[in-house]
Specification:
Elements: H1 19-22, H2 28-49, H3 60-66, H4 70-93, H5 101-123, H6 125-131, H7 133-136, H8 142-151, H9 157-191, H10 202-230
Helix pairs in contact: 2-9, 4-5, 4-8, 4-9, 5-6, 5-8, 8-9, 9-10
Length: 231
């Protein structure tokens, strides 16, 4: 699923490739301020306002399937960081036809899985082993592939960097929050004599993601209303 068909308003032509030429009339100081402001906006979009998991419905599988312990969340977040940054940056730098971009992004993701898996296995061997197939499936993580294919090729390096960091932070924030709540639910059910690891059921993950998405949408609606009043 592509989350970049409609670009956020916070991302102007300045952050797109070729945008600096169209903004050359402005002073360097003004451009620097705009770059900082837009970079911050891009990062916050990925982290909160346009969170790729909660709002964009990307990368749901690892969160729902494996995001039921804090250890799993830590391993997947680390792998996400190690894989997404280079994949998106390289996708932005490479000059390749549009039709081959999805395949190239998938190949790059597969290549970067190797160092990501090695690092995760070295730092958290037991947690990495417990992930089993979920670790390998990070190669096809839709957040990485969509941003590398749709966003990176048309934006400057700074924008790609901030977008990658923001989306990684957004993924990590959601999976850690969901994992924490699922662990609490598992402990409550276990203490009352219920099913062990009740929070591991995918349905619990979907329900929690729905609540998080609703809260973010509510926050976005309040921000939009405040901006309209300020005009």
């Amino acid at each position: 699923m592509s989350s970049n068909k409609k670009k956020p308003k916070a991302e102007s032509q300045l952050m797109e490739k070729g945008g600096r030429r169209s903004s050359a009339r402005g002073s360097k100081k003004t451009m620097h301020k705009r770059l900082i402001k837009e970079s911050t906006g891009i990062f916050l979009n990925g982290l909160i306002f346009r969170n790729p998991v909660a709002i964009g419905a990307l990368g749901l599988f690892p969160v729902v399937g494996a995001g039921y312990t804090m250890q799993n969340a830590a391993v997947l977040s680390l792998m996400m960081l190690v894989m997404m940054l280079p994949v998106c940056l390289l996708s932005g730098w490479m000059k390749i036809p549009v039709w081959i971009r999805p395949a190239a992004a998938l190949v790059l993701s597969g290549v970067m899985y190797l160092p990501a898996a090695a690092l995760a296995k070295w730092l958290m061997p037991q947690a990495f082993s417990a992930l089993s197939i979920y670790a390998v499936l990070m190669i096809g993580n839709s957040i990485i592939l969509s941003r590398a294919n749709d966003y990176a090729p048309s934006h400057i390096t700074l924008a790609v960097l901030m977008d990658s960091l923001g989306c990684t932070a957004g993924f990590s924030a959601v999976i850690f929050l969901v994992a924490a709540l699922r662990e609490i639910w598992s402990n409550i059910v276990k203490d009352t004599g219920g099913v062990y690891h009740a929070g591991a059921y995918p349905l619990v993950g979907f329900l929690l993601l729905g609540v998080i998405a609703a809260l973010i949408q509510h926050t976005n609606a309040k921000r939009a209303a405040a901006e309209r009043k300020a005009k």
